[in-house]
Amino acid sequence: MVTLIWFLPIIFIFHDFEEIIFMHSWVERNEGHILEKYPNLAKRIMSSTGALSTAGFAFSVFMLFLFLCAVTAFVFFTGYYIVWMSVFMIFYLHLFVHVGQAIIIRKYIPALVTSIIAIVPCTLIFLKVSHLFSISEIVIGSAIAVAAGVILFIPLINFTLRFDKWLIRTTHSKHLNINNMTLQDCIKFTNENPICYLATVENDQPRVRALGFWFADETGFYFQTGSIKEFPHQLEQNPKTEACFYKHEGAIGTMLRIAGEVEFINDRALKEKVLEDRPFLKNMGINADSQKLVLFRIPHGEAHFWKMENNLKPKEIIKF
Q1: d(Cα 218, Cα 281) in Å, to the nearest integer?
Q2: 291 with 225: CB under 8 angstroms?
Q3: 182: helix, coil or strand?
């Protein structure tokens, strides 16, 4: 028993490495699907762990790792093994929760692979030590551990979110250098920051609106909208446009402006792709043959980045 208790922090950190590596990118890719299928669950995730950067999430895992090490050390020196068993049971059962989550949403989730692997040694440990405790001791101890975890979870998440914001302010804004940027940098920036502001002209009146950007690659910057909107008709009359993308970092963030002439797209493969990327369109009765579906791109033009430290410097124009 004295040796086995140290496996808890070791298995925990092995398991959570998977979450640290994949959680942030998984949330970005699957946010729309989870919001559509499980809106209440998604809101809780996006306001807590889903809102963290990879560094912020790693920090929260580090805090939990220190807690488990402290609990294990306390039990090692005092012999209160029921305390360790209670915490171990919470970790052991939560591995099955991860497997159940993946089954319910029918998708890979970060932690699935290591949960399946970790269940094996945890089951062996449970079979090895469970006879040392009564069922009532395990149940009551686990219930107390769950209650303590729920009470501590909210302040831990709030503290981690504040730490994450501080980390972003003190690192990201300093390290992002917008000099000598390329088309690939523009593609990466727009795909990572898909909310933009698109400008058009109606007669002699400028118009602008926030828009959910679709995607970018070497062939252009792609948008999807509906024919019921006014701005695609404005672009038909005057195809010149400019889109502004923004990433908030600290007090003042980074801006990317892309200007060019739009090209409307009537490609079935792309229409089917947008329906896969944006499944909510199908729920609105839109299909690949629908006249309501409008796709366009900016295939050629000019782009430039802006940050406050470059405010008075000449623009570095990126032609594409």
Answers
A1: 26
A2: no
A3: coil
Buried b (16+ CB within 10 A) or exposed e, 261-287: ebeebeeeebbebbbeebeebeeeebe
Q: 23, 110 in Cβ contact below 8 A? A: yes
119: enclosing H helix or E strand = helix 112-129
Q: Tell me, letter by letter, the H, E, C secondary structure of 133-177.
A: CCHHHHHHHHHHHHHHHHHHHHHHHHHHHHHHHHHHHHHHHHHCC
CB 310 within 8 A of CB 304: no
Pairing of strands 240-247, 195-202: antiparallel
Do 139 and 130 meet the contact criterion of CB atoms below 8 Å apart?
Answer: no
Domains and CATH numbers, the chain: 4-175 (no CATH), 183-319 (2.30.110.10)
What pTM did the predictor assign?
0.53
Query: pLDDT 10s per residue in the chain (320 long)?
Result: 778 899 999 999 999 999 988 887 787 677 666 767 777 766 666 656 666 778 888 888 998 999 999 999 999 999 999 999 999 999 999 999 999 989 988 889 888 999 999 999 999 999 988 888 888 988 898 888 888 877 877 787 778 878 877 776 665 544 456 667 899 999 999 999 999 999 999 999 999 999 999 999 999 999 999 999 999 999 999 999 999 999 987 667 899 999 999 999 999 999 999 999 999 999 889 999 999 999 999 999 999 999 877 777 888 999 99
Please list, in sequence order, all residues whose beta carbon lies within 8 angstroms of the beta carbon of residue 87, skipping any fewer than 6 positions away. 8, 68, 71, 145
Cβ-based burial of 259 (10 A; exposed 0-12, middle 13-18, buried ≥19):
middle
